[in-house]
Amino acid sequence: MSPVIFRIRGFHASFFSREERRIHVHVWHADGEAKFWVEPGLHSPIIYSMPRHRLAAARRLVEEHADEIRTAWKAHGR
After folding, report:
1. Vertex 3 angle, CA 30 and 57, to 5°
2. Rounded to an integer, what distance in angstroms lies between the CA atom of residue 11 and that of residue 36?
3. Kind of pairing, strands 32-37 and 4-8?
4. Which of 4, 20, 39, 63 has its CA 20 to 30 A from that of 77?
5. Average pLDDT value over all residues in the chain
6. Domain segments of the chain: what residues?
7. What is d(CA 50, CA 74) in angstroms, rounded to the nearest whole number?
8. What per-residue confidence (pLDDT) applies to 32?
9. pLDDT in tens, 54-67
10. Burial of 47 (0-12, 13-18, 19+ CB in 10 A)
């Protein structure tokens, strides 16, 4: 299961509930996908295929919505 955390400006973010224990989020856009770890601290992403300018925008969104990501993660029972 992968709950959607946000949908903003062509991006959407979610996580896979059984992928791993560290709080993280996958961010998709029509241009590609990246994975960011939220804790401990925002880590550099794994870039599956996302242009640099989209990656920067995705990172800003993850930073802006970090509390929502943590809340969703904990509510999901992780």
Report:
1. 40
2. 14
3. unpaired
4. 63
5. 88
6. 4-75
7. 28
8. 93
9. 999 999 999 999 99
10. middle
21: its two tokens: 């224990």
Q: CA-CA-CA-CA torsion for 10, 26, 69, 14, nearest 10 degrees?
A: 70
Q: Which token pair is 23?
A: 């709080």
Partner residues linked to 8 by β-bridges: 11
**Cβ(36)–Cβ(45) under 8 Å?**
yes
Cα separation of 5 and 52, whole Å?
A: 22
- Tokens 């996302």, residue located: 50
Cis amide prior to 40 (ω within 30 degrees): yes
Q: Using H for helix, E for strand and C for coil, what is the string for the chain?
A: CCCEEEEECCEEEECCCCCCCCCEEEEEECCEEEEEECCCCCCCCEECCCCHHHHHHHHHHHHHCHHHHHHHHHHCCC
Q: Which amino acid is at 10?
A: G
